[in-house]
Each structure stands twice: as structure tokens, then as C-alpha cells.
Write a structure and sequence with these properties.
ribosomal protein; 4-stranded mixed sheet; 1 helix; single chain; Large ribosomal subunit protein bL36
Amino acid sequence: MTGMKIKNSIKALRTRHRDNKVVRRRGRIYIINKVNKRFKARQG
């Protein structure tokens, strides 16, 4: 996935856009956004 950022603090990314969702998959935390696709991030 392009545009994926790896961040230490997931809280700052979640508040950047109102449609950001926090998703946990395989022990990793992801930020996804259905409305604005460029907001993606991963932690862990």
C-alpha cells in the first residue's frame, strides 16, 4: 500500500481527519479512512 506511514503516536493521526478509523489487525494498529484514502498509517 503506498502512502502508508509508520508512526509512534496513533492518537495524533486519528484526529487529523474526522473519518479516520482505528483498526487492529494481526497485532498491528492501522488508521484507515474510507472517505479520504490518503490518510493511512500503521503502528507496531
